[in-house]
Amino acid sequence: MIAVVSAAVVGGLAYLTGYGHGPGSAAFEKLPLWLITLIVIRAGVVEELFYRGYAIERLRMIGLGPFWSVTIPLVIFSLGHWSGGAANILIALAAGIILTGFYLWRRDLVANMIGHGLVDFVANVLPQLFS
Amino acid sequence: MATNNIGAPFSLMTDQPSIPKISRATWMGLFLSLFAMVVIRYAFVFFVPEITFAAAILKETLIWQAQRLFLSLSGVAKVYRLGRSASEHVAGGNQLPGDS
Fold first, then answer.
1. ipTM > 0.85?
2. What is the DSSP letter of A47?
3. By C-alpha distance, which of A7, A32, A50, A4 is closest to B39?
4. What is the spatial distance between Cα A51 and Cα A47, in angstroms, rounded to a whole number?
5. Nearest by CB: B33 against A39, A50, A110
6. B53-94 residue pLDDT tens
7. In a mutagenesis test of the A interface, which of B21, B30, B68 is the best target, namely the one with the most A β-carbons within 10 Å?
8. Cβ contact B45:A83 at 8 Å
9. Where are the alpha helices (DSSP H) in chain A?
């Protein structure tokens, strides 16, 4: 469910912003498929652990309110994608809001990791498999 | 009236401070979780503007190393080894091993 909702929103935003057709994306697509797959898996596991599973809970624990403990990791997560341009920041922000929402709702970090990985897989690996 | 209770604890006071002491491991874990990937990405964009195979391998290796460091500092890996989800553990208000 996380993957489906995220993929729909991310796909829609990528289409609207024209993301994925820049020189950075072209260089990324030249990497071997196994490495792109590894990067996609890493992104799901590490980013969810860093920005959702640990940061939100720990910021709450050190005394921040619910709003800031969710917003700070979300903003850093989004801005961390600036290397792909403004469109990538916007897409990361939208995906981050959905993933954070699911995390707060279900508190299931593994599901978030799988959902995040699947979205990246659909966006980066599947097109190369069928091209 | 004799007042020899100066310094005595007020009846509503508790021995526990209201704000728990935050360990260095928690600050380090937070710093790593929030900024490690951003710093690594920024460094690569700055030094290697066009992504290459070697640069991608090095970047991924650095990110995995940052995660390993984070896991060992925060104790999340130990929690997972015990067969318990870290998110459940933290959401339950429990201390992670690295926070003691």
1. no
2. I
3. A50
4. 6
5. A50
6. 999 999 999 998 888 888 887 766 555 554 455 555 555 444
7. B30
8. yes
9. 2-17, 23-29, 33-42, 48, 55-61, 66-79, 86-106, 109-124, 126-129
